[in-house]
Amino acid sequence: MEHSEYSNKERLQELAQFLKSRRERITPEQAGLPSGGRRRTPGLRRAEVAMLTGISADWYTWLEQARSIQVSAQVLESIARALQLDANERRHLFLLALQQPPADLAPVDSGISPELQRFLDLQSPSPAFVTDQRLNVVAWNGVTRLIYGDYQAMSERDRNSVWRTFTSPYVRSLLKETWETHARHRLAQFRASYGKFAGDPWWMAFIEELRQTSEEFREWWPQHDVLNGPEGEKLNYHPAVGRLRFHQLSFQVSDAPHLTLTINMPSMEDGTIAKLKRLLESAALQPI
Question: Where are the domains of the chain?
Fold first, then answer.
């Protein structure tokens, strides 16, 4: 037997054993099914998993028999829900069945840890903020608020950086001649992220709403530009302190990979740091 055939056989055996082990740990009651009296084996029956998943009992049985059959991502998602897999187990299922990771689920809770908030605060006078997979700004430090707006007072929709880029007059005035470059970059990031969630109701509704609201979005969205990563140099024109120049750095949060932390590091040459300090000092003098 060639190595590739052997590896594939082992992978299918691992998948079969993994499914069996996860099926046996769930009681009918946990799955919302009647217990049906005493059972010879623990957990759910194969037919029950098939019923919960919406596939035939034979087809699910073939998976647990390590047969080489084609399986779709949609079916794997249904199996993951039926077996109540956590995020690590779900990823393992996809790697075994498709040999590729699944699209990350957008967590319901986009909250951040106190340690991450403290890290943001320690970046001052650099603006620093955290975005989720939908490009919602979910955390920020004080200087970010002074430059880009009071996120705490904004609606959830306005805290979405794509929505705000295309709909906010303040953002346009802040970016001036760089607005189009910034907007196209942000849209390309959004398109790249959308690829993981194509067809998801939230994304579809959001995209349609932006189509109705922004002429530029309506024109550029069909171009299918995709891009990941930071913007590099970034220019802002603040109404109180004038021109600010930053170099942008972004990275995933290690213990929350659905979150991206971005730091706009002020230029060392053109007085940006001094302007940011003046902005912070002025804010400190304002009455609470």
Answer: 3-98, 114-285
CATH architecture under which domain 3-98 falls = Orthogonal Bundle (1.10)
The pTM assigned to this predicted structure is 0.68
Token pair 């009647």 is found at: 34
**Closest among 279, 264, 258, 200 to 230, alpha carbons compared:** 264
Q: Which residue has the tokens 């991450």?
A: 116
Residues in CB range of 233: below 8 A, 6 or more apart: 245, 246, 247, 248
Q: Which of 103, 81, 88 is nearest to 31 (CA)?
A: 81
177: exposed, middle or buried (Cβ count in 10 Å: 0-12, 13-18, 19+): exposed
Q: Residue 102 half-sphere exposure, CB side, CA atoms within 13 Å?
A: 22
Residue 37 region by backbone torsions, left for phi larger than 0, else alpha for psi between -120 and 50, else beta: left
Residues of the chain predicted below pLDDT 50: 1-3, 6, 288
> What token pair was written down for 284?
């400190």
CATH 3.30.450.180 fits 114-285, yes or no: yes
pLDDT tens by residue, 65-119: 988 888 888 889 999 999 998 877 888 888 888 777 776 655 555 678 999 999 9
* Spatial separation of the C-alpha atoms in residues 62 and 206, rounded to whole Å: 40
Per-residue model confidence as pLDDT tens digits over 23-42: 988 888 888 888 766 777 77
